[in-house]
Amino acid sequence: LKRIGILTSGGDAPGMNAAVRAATRCAIYRGLEVIGIRRGFEGLLESDVIPLTSRSVGGIIHRGGTILRTARSERFKKPEGQVEALDRLKELDLDGLILVGGEGTFKGAWALYKKGFPVVGVPGTIDNDIAGTDVTIGFDTAVNTALDAVRKLRDTASSHDRLFIVEVMGRNSGFLASAVALASGAEYVLVPEIPSDVEKLCEKLYNARRQGKTHSLIIVAEGAMSARDLAAKLKDTAGYEARVTVLGHIQRGGSPTAFDATLASRMGAHAVKALLEGQSGIMTGSLWGQMVAHPLPVAWEEKKPLSDEVLSLMEMLSI
Ligand code: F6P
């Protein structure tokens, strides 16, 4: 192994830069040359690359987004695109590739691995919807960003005796929503993993009012329902007036938390170690605080369950 490439792909996540920095420096430390591929698979197809040096990845550990930029490439999803990408990797004289991203990125990495190219995936997504790792890079920061917003909304909700609905991201999973709900002390959380029962929610809201609650916060995962639809349903079902906030892409930005910068540094380093040991077609993970590696398909073939303990705690704490 002499020369490796690094790319970030799919939705950006805070901590991606810390992973790029760690992988670059660990690779250089072990005598490798490193090339950064810009704009994910899209940039790979166009050979849009920059050399990465110890200095060029300086001053980025704390920066949100990704200095390599990112894209969701439609071209690469097609078999012809994947053949073309392999040609580009060979032209660039690369012996291995580290890919930071979520499920889509890992599926792309798997396609390259199946064609014989050495790859290691590093899980970076605010959704935390990747099995094989307790947490993904960016999740902790997104939870804290959303939490900060929800705490501010709680202030105004309590001043005005209002009902607030806050929609958080997460694609088809409720990790972000349930973590934000528990940490913010929200009364209710709607997640895609559990069918939404609006009538039951209205009943709970009614009982809460009767027991003296003057305001309530509902966190809804985008994959469960939109906050606007939920507000309309609450109005239709029980006449409740709710204020709606959709947090949106603000959840993807900002400096990584200490947790994410650390996780990203460890995973970036672990990916280089794995490539040097001749491992390929794998993803790095963190289980019980230890760095581990699994075959890439674990990411999409295994379902990472939401914590029952967290959900039932939400129920108990919302009285
Ligand atoms: O996967 C990260 C994520 O932010 C999801 O939570 C969200 O559903 C999606 O990306 C939004 O994608 P885009 O930035 O392409 O609109």
Automatic annotation (TrEMBL):
<dbReference type="GO" id="GO:0006002">
    <property type="term" value="P:fructose 6-phosphate metabolic process"/>
</dbReference>
<keyword id="KW-0479">Metal-binding</keyword>
<keyword id="KW-0067">ATP-binding</keyword>
<feature type="binding site">
    <location>
        <begin position="72"/>
        <end position="73"/>
    </location>
    <ligand>
        <name>ATP</name>
    </ligand>
</feature>
<keyword id="KW-0418">Kinase</keyword>
<keyword id="KW-0324">Glycolysis</keyword>
<keyword id="KW-0547">Nucleotide-binding</keyword>
<dbReference type="InterPro" id="IPR012003">
    <property type="entry name" value="ATP_PFK_prok-type"/>
</dbReference>
<dbReference type="GO" id="GO:0042802">
    <property type="term" value="F:identical protein binding"/>
</dbReference>
<dbReference type="GO" id="GO:0003872">
    <property type="term" value="F:6-phosphofructokinase activity"/>
</dbReference>
<protein>
    <recommendedName>
        <fullName>ATP-dependent 6-phosphofructokinase</fullName>
        <ecNumber>2.7.1.11</ecNumber>
    </recommendedName>
</protein>
<dbReference type="Pfam" id="PF00365">
    <property type="entry name" value="PFK"/>
</dbReference>
<feature type="binding site" description="in other chain">
    <location>
        <begin position="185"/>
        <end position="187"/>
    </location>
    <ligand>
        <name>ADP</name>
    </ligand>
</feature>
<dbReference type="InterPro" id="IPR000023">
    <property type="entry name" value="Phosphofructokinase_dom"/>
</dbReference>
<keyword id="KW-0963">Cytoplasm</keyword>
<feature type="binding site" description="in other chain">
    <location>
        <position position="222"/>
    </location>
    <ligand>
        <name>substrate</name>
    </ligand>
</feature>
<feature type="binding site" description="in other chain">
    <location>
        <begin position="249"/>
        <end position="252"/>
    </location>
    <ligand>
        <name>substrate</name>
    </ligand>
</feature>
<dbReference type="GO" id="GO:0070095">
    <property type="term" value="F:fructose-6-phosphate binding"/>
</dbReference>
<dbReference type="InterPro" id="IPR012828">
    <property type="entry name" value="PFKA_ATP_prok"/>
</dbReference>
<comment type="function">
    <text>Catalyzes the phosphorylation of D-fructose 6-phosphate to fructose 1,6-bisphosphate by ATP, the first committing step of glycolysis.</text>
</comment>
<feature type="binding site">
    <location>
        <position position="243"/>
    </location>
    <ligand>
        <name>substrate</name>
    </ligand>
</feature>
<comment type="pathway">
    <text>Carbohydrate degradation; glycolysis; D-glyceraldehyde 3-phosphate and glycerone phosphate from D-glucose: step 3/4.</text>
</comment>
<feature type="binding site">
    <location>
        <position position="11"/>
    </location>
    <ligand>
        <name>ATP</name>
    </ligand>
</feature>
<keyword id="KW-0460">Magnesium</keyword>
<feature type="binding site" description="in other chain">
    <location>
        <begin position="125"/>
        <end position="127"/>
    </location>
    <ligand>
        <name>substrate</name>
    </ligand>
</feature>
<dbReference type="InterPro" id="IPR022953">
    <property type="entry name" value="ATP_PFK"/>
</dbReference>
<dbReference type="GO" id="GO:0016208">
    <property type="term" value="F:AMP binding"/>
</dbReference>
<feature type="binding site">
    <location>
        <begin position="102"/>
        <end position="105"/>
    </location>
    <ligand>
        <name>ATP</name>
    </ligand>
</feature>
<comment type="similarity">
    <text>Belongs to the phosphofructokinase type A (PFKA) family. ATP-dependent PFK group I subfamily. Prokaryotic clade 'B1' sub-subfamily.</text>
</comment>
<comment type="subunit">
    <text>Homotetramer.</text>
</comment>
<feature type="binding site" description="in other chain">
    <location>
        <position position="154"/>
    </location>
    <ligand>
        <name>ADP</name>
    </ligand>
</feature>
<dbReference type="InterPro" id="IPR035966">
    <property type="entry name" value="PKF_sf"/>
</dbReference>
<dbReference type="GO" id="GO:0030388">
    <property type="term" value="P:fructose 1,6-bisphosphate metabolic process"/>
</dbReference>
<keyword id="KW-0021">Allosteric enzyme</keyword>
<feature type="binding site">
    <location>
        <position position="162"/>
    </location>
    <ligand>
        <name>substrate</name>
    </ligand>
</feature>
<keyword id="KW-0808">Transferase</keyword>
<dbReference type="GO" id="GO:0005524">
    <property type="term" value="F:ATP binding"/>
</dbReference>
<feature type="binding site" description="in other chain">
    <location>
        <begin position="213"/>
        <end position="215"/>
    </location>
    <ligand>
        <name>ADP</name>
    </ligand>
</feature>
<dbReference type="GO" id="GO:0005945">
    <property type="term" value="C:6-phosphofructokinase complex"/>
</dbReference>
<feature type="binding site">
    <location>
        <position position="103"/>
    </location>
    <ligand>
        <name>Mg(2+)</name>
    </ligand>
</feature>
<dbReference type="GO" id="GO:0048029">
    <property type="term" value="F:monosaccharide binding"/>
</dbReference>
<feature type="domain" description="Phosphofructokinase">
    <location>
        <begin position="3"/>
        <end position="275"/>
    </location>
</feature>
